[in-house]
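Exercise 7 asks you to align residues with tokens for two separate proteins.
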Amino acid sequence: MKTFNVIPKDSDSVTEINTWLLELDEHKLIATQELNWGSGEFALHIPETPEKIEDIKNYVNRNSREKGIFREIPEEHIAKLDTNEYFFEMVATSGGAHEDWSVGLHEGESNDDIVNMIAQAEEGIESEGDEFLYENGWEEDCYDYKIEGGIKITPLVEL
């Protein structure tokens, strides 16, 4: 497997997106956190063997699996890089700029109880952050990073 160091070309161009789900009988709620970072560093892994290619398919989104995007090195001038299209690892982020949260109905029909649950989650997140979600039965669903404005890619020499 080839490994590359990836950093954004521009500052304040890394967005981290975290989602949590709360499954109820006939409903599913989703909470989404977006964090903007001043900088970041990532490891990009490009599989080379058939075994690694099959393994990595489990870690990328459907579009990437179908088109084989995860097997290619992204262009440095890429306008927006979605890390869920590749096998990426976050090495470090720093310089947090701001944080936004949203809570909504992901599946099912809205009713007064659901509206109240969404309002409670919004209030809980505002006062306690993601601790509220962990303490109230929400499950982490996924996380992703987006890098806008181009990237710098450097091959890592494996020892």
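Second protein for Exercise 7:
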Amino acid sequence: MSVPIHALTDAFAVAPQLAPKDMQAVADAGYKSVIINRPDLEGGPGQPAAADVMAAARAAGLAVEYQPVVSGAMTAEDVARFAQLLDTLPAPVLAYCRTGTRCTHLYHAAKSR
């Protein structure tokens, strides 16, 4: 997989934008779940649609959730939902957004609740 993955713990990692073609490699790398935090069309029409990534993730045997969070506008509800996903999705979990930073902030906010 050519996408850089940054592990924050043994159970959680972040990545920049992923595409449907990356999902089998994510599963092959041992991840069990994917959280998509990048809203559709944030990067324009060339950005892979969450629905397409979700279909590819499911085909690769991954659990997947779409939780769009607007960059720079994270809310308490976003953090609570992310914490819930971390508690319920099979680990290890890989979350992605544009660069991975938003997912990292969500993770730290969820863990400090």
